Amino acid sequence: MARVTPTQFVRQVRQEISRITWPSRRDVITATITVLVMVFIAAVFFMLVDWVLSNLVQMVLGFGG
Predict the structure, then answer these.
(1) How distant, in Å, are the alpha carbons of 1, 7, 20, 36 from that of 16?
(2) CA angle 43-32-46, nearest 5°?
(3) Rounded distance, CA 30 to CA 24, Å?
(4) Which residue, of 14, 16, 30, 64, is most buried by count of CB atoms within 10 Å of its CB?
(5) Dihedral through CA 22, CA 25, CA 26, CA 32, nearest 10?
(6) d(Cα 63, Cα 65) in Å, to the nearest integer?
């Protein structure tokens, strides 16, 4: 691989950055809300699964009843 001078490197980086298609503000907000909703749904799901399994284990082992 050929050596690149610092000036050439900076020039190449600027060219690559200019090719990037940045998402719009609306796209970022929509994606953020979608992620937060999915995280909330996953948290509730795993909380319920944990609660059910905990109760089953307590029932089988005869604890706390």
Answers:
(1) 19, 14, 7, 31
(2) 10
(3) 10
(4) 30
(5) 90
(6) 6
pLDDT by residue (tens digit) across 4-50? 899 999 999 999 999 999 999 999 999 999 999 999 999 999 999 99
- pLDDT of 65 above 60: no
> Please, what is the end-to-end C-alpha distance for the chain in angstroms?
71
**Region at 64 (left for phi over 0; alpha for psi -120 to 50; beta for the rest):** left
Buried/exposed code over 2-12 (b: 16+ C-beta within 10 A; e: otherwise): eeeeeeeeeee
**pTM, two decimal places:** 0.66
CA–CA dist 60, 32 (Å, integer): 42
Rg (CA), the chain: 26
